[in-house]
Amino acid sequence: MITLNLLPKSEKAILRRSFYRMVFRAYATTFVILCITYAGSLYAAQNLLEKHITQLQSDIQSAAQGTTINQGGSIQDNIKKINALLLSYSTVQQNFFPWSHTVAGIVKRMPAGISITRLTIDSELRTVLLEGVAATRPNLITLRDVLDATPYFQSAKSPVSDLTERSNIPFQVTATLMPSFWTITDETL
After folding, report:
1. 3-class DSSP state for residue 183?
2. How far is Cα 29 from Cα 26, in angstroms, rounded to an integer?
3. Is the CB of residue 136 less than 8 Å from the CB of residue 119?
């Protein structure tokens, strides 16, 4: 390989130094621009946090002074509002029924081979809808028999089409709740 040196060594050194200066200047400029960008974003974040802290402090002070209690009128108006809320809460409490016990009672009676995908209890129609998949036809028949024998169901019905397959049967069983269901105790579930 043949190399031709057309530049004298002194000019090569000058060119090399100017190249290094340009590279250094480019890195320094990039570094300064990045520092300015980071400083600007940190300044913006600091302002947002200070505004948020100021808002929280004013909310805490107003709550501590009780200004939120007296909003909307006199003390008598506030007492009337609280009484109305208590009345609505007592109405809800009177209509409360422990559905979790009912669901636990239904699940406890499930025969093997039954997989429930949906359980809907309609208190107005007084029905329970069970949807799922039965492994075999005898499993589905056992489920209907178990639901019929349950003390709080009058009857359990499923479409005849549920019995057309032999295995992996998608089913839908509707059971009607007894009128005395709403007075059943936890021991009978």
Report:
1. helix
2. 5
3. no
